[in-house]
Amino acid sequence: MKQALKSELSKQLILNEAFKLFYEDGFKTTSIEKIMKATSLTKGAFYHHYANKKELGLEVITKKVQSRVQKRMVYPLYQNGNAYTILEDTFLNSLKSFSIYEKKHGCPTNNLINEIGDNEKVYQKALKNIIEEWKTALKDLIERGKVENSIKQDISSAAAAIYLISAFEGIRGIRKLYDDDLVINEYLNGLSIYLKQLKQ
To answer: Are 105 and 176 in contact, with CB atoms under 8 Å apart?
Structure first.
């Protein structure tokens, strides 16, 4: 039992350090050697858990990156309450809650989409699943808002969902270029104007 626990802890350490390095330095420039140096584990420990970097990359996406999006942007959309208020709070408050570190490095999902989303089908599928889950949650919330009469009936839930995701991901990337939050505040003002157009 102790050996199994030690093995699992080692795997989690590799996964956590790989996510951190992919996030800070990029996926392509992060080698297995660099990951293992950060963990202080042997290369043998890596190959005990993963066949190659591709397999590790997929697990980082499905276990680390997806869970971050779910926690911050998907699960809050399913809470009870006024649908429009939930929509507004989720988008406005989430952006304000990011740390300086997160603002500096942008969105892990968006970073990976831009870096590897077009050259590996397995990565493309995993990253697409994250966006599709988020989009579905948004569509469900908007449709719920129509039923409860907090969101206008003529709003296309699919169009609004993909617009909100795209704009949010875009500002996360743009913020990396700046040393302060002025551009985020400008985005939030624009987002507030857009959201008001959805309100019943």
So the answer is: yes
For 63-106, how does the pLDDT look when each residue is reduced to its tens digit (9 = 90+)? 999 999 999 999 999 999 999 999 999 999 888 899 999 999 99
Query: CB count, 10 Å around CB of 39?
Result: 16
pTM for the structure as a whole:
0.93
Q: Which residues, other chains included, contact 190 with Cβ-Cβ below 8 Å and sequence gap of 6+?
A: none
Dist. CA 190–CA 180, nearest whole Å = 18
- For helices 108-116 and 157-175, what crossing angle results, to 10°? 90
* Nearest alpha carbon to residue 134 among 51, 194, 76: 76
> 154-183 as b/e, with b when 16 or more CB fall inside 10 Å?
ebebeebbbebbeebbebbeebeeeeebee
Taking residue 77's Cβ as centre, other Cβ atoms within 10 Å add up to 20
What would the two tokens of residue 189 be? 């003002």
Alpha helices in 117-181 (DSSP H): 121-148, 157-175
DSSP 78-115: GSSS-HHHHHHHHHHHHHHH--HHHHHH--HHHHHHHH
As a whole number of angstroms, the distance between CA 200 and CA 181 comes to 30
Query: Which pLDDT does position 6 carry in this prediction?
Result: 81
